[in-house]
Amino acid sequence: MMVISAGTRNHLALDLGLDRDDPAACLDALTEGVELHIDLGLIGDRTFVNNASFGAYAQVVQSPAYRDEKTGTALAMLPDLLTGHQGAYLVVRVDGHVILDGPQAVLVSNNPYKTSDIAGLGRRVGLDQGLLGVIGIKISNAVQAAGLLRSAQRSRNLTALTAREVIIDADQPQIPVGIDGESVMMPTPVRCTIRPLALRVQVPRGRPGVPAPKPQLDWALLRRQALTFTPVADGGNSGAREQTP
Asked: Measured between alpha carbons, how far is 201 from 67 in angstroms, rounded to an integer?
């Protein structure tokens, strides 16, 4: 697969370090490219590279405004959707154990997002950890919903963890699911898994979103420098004197 950053949000391009302001630069992968192996999410018999959303999250994806302004739409709609959510009653099982009973919103991602990102609109630390990210929100009033926008209060009503298998069950035979930003109906229970390093991606060798590697420590040089200093006694005081090797 080769990714060109010409989408609306460019989640995958962001996490691959591609230039999201210059889609043409992505074509350098054809001439000066390197191959990466990244994980792939699986939901039912469908694949996803970013995330699958349930409950209030899925309702956000269904909004016409979401296509044009994803971040603003999600943050504006979530508090009201959470408090007035009338959809299916969800139960979340992670690696065989019930983790959430009755959450209003659940987001399952191909590798975890940073924990400060409650809407799954930020950046993932990596795409090759072999893990699903899970974010679940359960609130009981409007005050708690508003608190989700303030990081100091967020942890009380938000569950964030990683898993290899997530099963979303419901009290309805099918539920709306947002798969990589596209709304679909899926039969319950919905099973999400991770396929480690299943996708080969060709990317440019030089990518602006990839930080420069830290210089490697030269242990031999460090040892030589350490050996040029020896402690000496001077008038009862401890000191150090540099010796010429």
From this structure: 25
